[in-house]
Amino acid sequence: MEYTDYYQVLGVGRDAKQGEIKKAYRKLARKYHPDVSSEPSASAKFKEVGEAYAVLKDPEKRAAYDQLGSNWQAGQDFRPPPDWNQGWEFGGGGYDDGYGSGGGAGGFDASQFSDFFETLFGGGGGGGFGGQQRANRARGEDHHAKIVIDLEDAFGGATRPITLRQAEYADDGRVSTRERTLNVKIPKGIRQGQQIRLAGQGGAGIGGSQSGDLYLEIEFNPHRHYRVEGADVYLNLPVAPWEAALGTQIKIPTPAGSVNLKIPKGSAQGRTLRLKKRGIPAKQPGDLYVVLQVALPPADSEKTERAYEAMKDEFDFNPRAGLGV
What we know:
alpha+beta; HSP40/DNAj peptide-binding domain; four-stranded mixed sheet
């Protein structure tokens, strides 16, 4: 997937004010509007311009997009970091083309934006960051943000201070950022991708009406020991060759504390052992899967070299027998 430089699409600088962005968009929208342009690529250009404006007109999307940096060049393969939008608070608000035709010039559907846009912001012009909201609703709009917690918090539950950033346009047309910190209760058993709803913590209501809600989508910090799939947790466990061959009982770590694990006799590299209900303690608890990794001790002394020589003489073993060579 190629990186799209939205500033280049609209022909404005990265420090452009809101008025400059809107002016540039309107000029290009008139130029490439399918109803008036005879250029073969007008429709594609019009969509590209509309996509760029949908991001740069929105202070929240623009600030998050700017965080990716300006080092990406057109044509380069692009994969956003998994936590690129962590801590940004996004409000609702649908796509407004700024061209006087309401929700998309020429009937343009924001869900047709590029893969690049959808990767960053989700489909439909907002994805997981808030849907379209009618301007005449008195209730405040719902806000959305992605937060990252430790896996251990999902096992035991916790209360953590979470700092969120929200971008807005200042009076001078530039993007400014404000922060707020909330003490968030992390419920025991929450899984990656689930949301925590904070009632009344979204956008303010109109005329003193009820505020919207804030939805926090959960991601887990990368862990040095575990990986997570749904409610299941996986641990790659190093074992010595004699532990795998002869069998033993050893103590292993889990996110909820250490437990004893029986290594069956004759275990091989990659064997997976299942500990029922030792995964994330949800309503339907996940399992803990232990994947055995046979670790070879180094032959870094005369004594250990002699031990390997003795093994070579003692064992009638060809690890490549199945290859037919």
